[in-house]
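INTERNAL TRANSFER SHEET
From: sequence group
To: structure group
Subject: F-box domain-containing protein

Please process the attached sequence and return the structure record in the designated field. Keep the field labels unchanged so the import script can parse them.
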Amino acid sequence: MQGRLLNLCADRPSQSFTSRIMDMISDSSHTGKRLAPSGSSFDCFPDEVIGIILSHMPCVRDVVMASVTCHKWQEAAWNYLYRLNFIESDFVSRGTVMTRISREAIISKVVMKTKSLRELSICMYRTVSIQAVPLITWLDFTKKSLTSLTLENGIQPNLNLLDSLGGGQSKLKCFKWESPYIRTIDSIRHSFQSLVSLSLVRPSCTLSPKNLQELLCICPSLASLRLEDTHIYYQADATCQMKSCSLKALSLHGGFEGIDHVVLFMECLDLLTVEGVTFQSLKLVQERQSCLQNLTIEHANVAAWDLGESVNSLRTFNLNQGDDLAKEWPRYYQLISTVRTLQKLQLSGRMLTIHEGVNLNEIAGAFPELSQLAVNYEHAPRAFMACNSAYFKKLVILKLSANTINEPFALWIAQFLNRCASLKRLKIAGEVCEAKTRYMKSLCMFNAAIIDIMRSYPHVKVSFDFY
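Return from structure group:
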């Protein structure tokens, strides 16, 4: 079958790749030409099953090629295909990149052939823009069935997709929009009653705190919101307030320049991620105090945290402050030190020693329910002192990483293992430098030491992640 399919694609070498693809999609081409052998086991597959198989193919090129194997597969593709994923490789032939017009023609032809498309993804190079007119046509055609939309390309001219997607007929549940253009929000025309997940990445226009609140109001069922590199402007004060009764996951990644204070009124927020932002204060107000369970902070500069009683319900805390970890850890430890339910703690940074602010004795004593721990070690003569009396009774998964792989790191691992009676999995991660005789000798000594240490712990599954 594969050989015949390749011959089919090469039977007209003078014809452009775009033309061949367009012919394959057309009803008039290959109809009734059964390339698969008669009596093939695929003939017994229901059309719905074939549609599911084609929907799981990674790119549209594969879907088109597979759909022309026989008439049955062609009918199944266009009648029961529910997912299309357009990627850059779909528009490259023999090293030649298609023009914008050719790309849009292929997308139009494929999308307009489907009858029950639910998931559409367009992820070409970010330098490639999509014209507004054909995009509106695709969205209008699929509006009644589309539940998931991913658009990673800009639109020319600027277009507010809320006008095309919103309204009573919208069934959209997941929407990821890069370079969004949102000037105004209308609570009637831009209603998304079914939207559950929304991701806005690098907006092409500046938003106001009022726009963010209006966005939450038109999505009453929204459970997950991700804002990445979002530019927010302010007028009277530098405060941004967000209120939602349905939001369970909120991610703030970069942006928010000029905003000093963020106040979150969230009734059921479960996961909060703050990365690459600078605030004077961040306050969380929750009526249900036992909701917040996951908190991730990465390279964020927040002078004052006010999580109220919600912090006492934390189950997972991830902190990555790079070289500032030793300086920042004391105040973050003070933030979570009263949490007795913490089960997973991940710290990423330099010099985890008692002399630089991170005390493993305090961690073991403060979090008796801890079952997963990830810490980084950088060689220092007194690094082991942090573990002298620390016992992690319920620790099951341990990840230890280092910038330098050497024998002292192995000895530190051994002391850690002595204090983890319930440990089942150990992951060792580290950076491997270029092959030099001196460094390779240290690496060999580390390997020999680990092998000798782990003989005493046959019940512990060990994995390595060297980069």
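Handover comment: Residues 1-159 form one domain. The chain has 13 helices and 23 strands.
Transfer complete.
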